[in-house]
Amino acid sequence: MPTADTKINHRVAGASYYVNEQQRARVKQLSRSWMWRLELPTWALIGVIYTGWFACVIYWQQLGAVLGSVLLILLSTWYMSLQHELIHGHPTRWRWVNQLLGTLPLAIWYPYGLYRDSHIQHHRDQDLTHPEKDPECYYYTAKQWRHFPSLFKKIVRISNTFIGRLVVGPALDIIDTIRSASRAFITGDRPAIIMWLAHFGLLSLLLHWMAGYGISAIFTILVIGYPALSLTKVRSFFEHRAAENSAARSTLNEAAWPWRLLFLNLNYHLVHHDLPTLPWYGLRQIYLENRVQYQHRSEQFVVNGYTQWFETYAFTALEIEIHPFYDSENKTSISEQPHEGLGRADRQPDASQIAR
């Protein structure tokens, strides 16, 4: 595992933060086990997702449109979770092999390379929720918000409700993706153009193959692709919040096992940001072994399952519009000022860090 950077709030993307030396030793011990070294759970996951997805298409007529669609939606969502795991170096140490395993556009919308580059940038914890630096941020600068038309502001507020995020959120993502592709072709960004052409080519072949089994391209996009993307919004609805301490920006969602399996334990999101190279099957174990410390680190940004979000925010908007402390005029934020806390990430925590 890579060593941690000097400051708790300013780790480079991909660096690891251990709550204490015992946890570091525990992760090292687990990483030496035969199951972890061979990455068997991830290889099994790859086999199940690919076999299940292609079997659903091949046996579409036998399954019927309703059951077949439900299964393909779940498998496509699961595939997006798998792509995230591939980005973080699993199941092999070879980036090109992992990319091959995640390049097929089973989830339609994003080229693997676009997701990979954007997500690695998102893992710069000092920039989490930064409106102009975090590509997965839902906040805006005051300047951006002032220039938005009133209709777009209403759409943002709708998308900040749980139901709205599931219904409107995917459309906003798709629009941004189309803009990204258009910008690449307009500016002549050669690597990006190659990436998009490969994605479109593979997607065309996949949709043509599916049509041979009675699943039209329009049906695939609207009835399978869009709901699958919508389902990912359950996980990311309130995954991050603006907070001065970067550790308090990522949630800990104690979700039920079906959600944990579908999202590959990313509900323990602070653990993932602290230990980004930890495999998905280790996230829950490490969280439970250090539950009190992690809840303290998150400043109690803890959720009792996704039902809690639904009950609280089904039609009530999160207050995620203008970033509360980012100053777009001066290009600074509170998070860029010095913070007190652990001097080194591998130092033993004091009593206040261990107790709630």
TrEMBL record:
CDD domains: DesA_FADS-like. InterPro entries: FA_desaturase_dom. Residues 65-293 form the Fatty acid desaturase domain. Residues 333-356 are annotated as: Disordered. This is Fatty acid desaturase. Residues 337-349 have a biased composition (Basic and acidic residues). Keywords: Membrane, Transmembrane, Transmembrane helix. It comes from Yersinia alsatica. The chain crosses the membrane at residues 40-60, 66-82, 94-112, 206-229.
